[in-house]
Automatic annotation (TrEMBL):
Residues 179-294 form the 3-hydroxyisobutyrate dehydrogenase-like NAD-binding domain. This is Uncharacterized protein. Signal peptide: none annotated. Residues 5-162 form the 6-phosphogluconate dehydrogenase NADP-binding domain. Belongs to the HIBADH-related family. NP60 subfamily. Transmembrane segments: none annotated. InterPro entries: 6-PGluconate_DH-like_C_sf, 6PGD_dom2, 6PGDH_NADP-bd, HIBADH-like_NADP-bd, HIBADH-related, HIBADH-related_NP60_sf, NAD(P)-bd_dom_sf. Keywords: NAD, Oxidoreductase. It comes from Remersonia thermophila.
Length: 313
């Protein structure tokens, strides 16, 4: 019989991921959903036909009814608090938890131990890809944990939420988070490089168009998408950032902590983190990782906010 599914966390990432599960996975309907701000979950549920989704009032209420529980939450303390809350109020024996948030590997080790000690199964399953990729079912999931548990989680990834999986079946949970945290340093450094390249091209009198062409022709993919997000000016106009500055700061700090523990100096990360902190100061929580461009502009004596490139507004 298809499993009963409970989804916790309907933020930028969770909304698209959960939608793909509701529409494509072999699950019992209604799929249960929970979000801290309940109104968001209620509004979200209206896009589906009646009987497909049910909003629950508490984490405990959802866990009690479900076989498989997905979590995708902002940060470490939120994941820990939700797990402590549900362990204090619900029997989790025999239930499978699939944890998709980007958190420190040590946090994953702690929460997985608590759940497994209480008789649950656990899969660490962070995802790579922006919210738009989540919406399209084009994420890359990184799955670690006991083989049998990973096997149960896989039907929700490739072909449902994800275009591919990095299968770490049989490896300790925290390995998936090591890869996720290291992977996100590539994104931070990419945005840093695009920002510096574009600012230099503007100040050196070359103009940004040729650098944009170069990025699109040589690097493509996320490089091209970030260059356009930057040149469109959206990095300083979005009310709801796509990769919020707070999450990017959390990821950079996790990477620095991993690097320090391993005795590795990651100088690029120091530069990226300093720019993210300037973004936070300038834009508050509306800042995006792409707003690093604004911080680099300001340092070069340009206005933090750019004029949108014609055609990209
Ligand atoms: N954005 C990206 O490009 C991206 C890509 C891959 C992975 N990730 C990772 O995926 C996770 C979610 O990211 P996101 O972009 O979806 O973030 P988001 O839009 O900020 O959503 C965060 C979710 O966590 C909930 N939350 C926050 N604080 C809470 C609290 N104190 N108690 C209970 N719930 C709380 C939010 O509930 P409310 O709606 O009530 O605020 C929301 O459901 C993060 O770990 C992030 O690093 C993000």
């Amino acid at each position: 019989m298809a499993p009963k599914l409970f989804w916790i966390g309907l933020g930028n990432m969770g909304r698209g991921m959960c939608k793909n599960v509701i529409n494509k996975a072999d699950v019992q309907h209604p799929v249960l959903v929970y979000n801290r701000t309940k109104q968001k979950a209620v509004e979200y549920s209206t896009q589906f036909e009646e009987g497909r989704v049910e909003v629950v009032d508490s984490v405990a209420a959802g866990v009690a009814k479900a076989d498989v529980i997905f979590t995708i939450l902002a940060k470490d303390d939120v994941v820990e608090a939700i797990v402590d809350d549900l362990l204090g109020s619900t029997d989790v024996k025999g239930k499978l938890f699939v944890e998709c948030s980007t958190i420190h590997p040590d946090t994953t080790a702690r929460v997985s131990k608590k759940l497994v000690d209480a008789g649950a199964e656990f899969v660490a399953a962070p995802v790579f890809g922006a919210p738009a990729m989540g919406e399209l079912g084009q994420l890359v999931g990184v799955l670690a944990g006991p083989e049998a548990s990973v096997q149960k989680a896989r039907p929700f990834f490739q072909g449902v939420m994800a275009k591919a999986e990095i299968n770490m079946s049989g490896l300790p949970y925290e390995k998936a988070l090591q890869l996720k945290v290291i992977g996100n340093t590539f994104i931070l450094n990419m945005v840093e490089q695009i920002s510096e390249g574009l600012v230099l091209s503007e100040k050196a009198g070359l103009g940004t168009q040729y650098v944009r062409d170069f990025i699109h022709l040589i690097f493509q993919g996320p490089f091209a998408a970030y260059a356009d997000r930057i040149l469109s000016g959206k990095y300083h106009t979005m009310d709801y950032p796509l990769f919020p500055v707070d999450l990017a700061i959390k990821d950079a700090r996790h990477a620095l902590s991993l690097a320090e523990a391993a005795g590795v100096h990651m100088g690029n990360l120091d530069v990226g983190l300093a720019h993210l902190e300037e973004v936070k100061q300038h834009q508050g929580e509306k800042g995006d990782i792409a707003s690093i461009y604004g911080a680099v502009r300001a340092k070069a004596g340009l206005k933090y906010e750019n004029e949108p490139t014609p055609g990209l507004e």
